[in-house]
Amino acid sequence: xxxxxxxxxxxxxxxxxxxxxxxxxxxxxxxxxxxxxxxxxxxxxxxxxxxxxxxxxxxxxxxxxxxxxxxxxxxxxxxxxxxxxxxxxxxxxxxxxxxxxxxxxxxxxxxxxxxxxxxxxxxxxxxxxxxxxxxxxxxxxxxxxxxxxxxxxxxxxxxxxxxxxxxxxxxxxxxxxxxxxxxxxxxxxxxxxxxxxxxxxxxxxxxxxxxxxxxxxxxxxxxxxxxxxxxxxxxxxxxxxxxxxxxxxxxxxxxxxxxxxxxxxxxxxxxxxxxxxxxxxxxxxxxxxxxxxxxxxxxxxxxxxxxxxxxxxxxxx
Length: 317
What we know:
2 domains; Spore Coat Polysaccharide Biosynthesis Protein SpsA, Chain A; elongated; eight-stranded mixed beta sheet; alpha/beta
């Protein structure tokens, strides 16, 4: 039985992924797992030649599986595609840029063996841009308020989970995956493991504001109905402004300014409410009409369990 499945979304990483794979091999050799691991590399519509690099490596090393998606679906979708093929008792998820301290994977596995369902690296200082750090803080706040994230838990790019968790992740058939939302929907048994993040091997993050906003929307809209409650909040605020306007007009005989403020507030809150409700409706429409989180073009090498996954998944071009 395979003990470990390393899952790596790959995008513009032709120069770094061979070194990351070497780090995994060194770590598994050092910890006695050299004969019981696999690496699932998911090429997420990358414009460089990372696909060719990985297929060449897979021909030389039987523990490497290359899953090629038909286009760029995003990191979350690429991860979900990789989890479909993971056979291991434990699944370890990491990035392709070398920042994840893969040599510390035994600490994550130790936490799982002690009873946790999900274990994440906790970096005292994340080696990323101010922009992405700010996004991480907003993301943590959103998860705490909207998804009831356990107090003190911090998300990161390096984590591991059990086969029990992976079976439930495989059952997700929506078009807008958000890992935290899926995890917290069925377990709170989540722990952090302190470790130090590595420097990127080269290049810089491809995350943009648009991608971060899209990720937040997946969490807000896809796994919670709390944003709908904002309609009631805005209604209460508008009612308060309306009463204030009425008082000003009655007492002072002139409530024009407050009336204009009230009208502007009404217009903005109505548009916001329409946007939130429209987003829920649009996503339901897209899923109803068959929108998928990913489509697979090719998997290398061909193995019996891979064929079974593809037949069950029915998402091959």
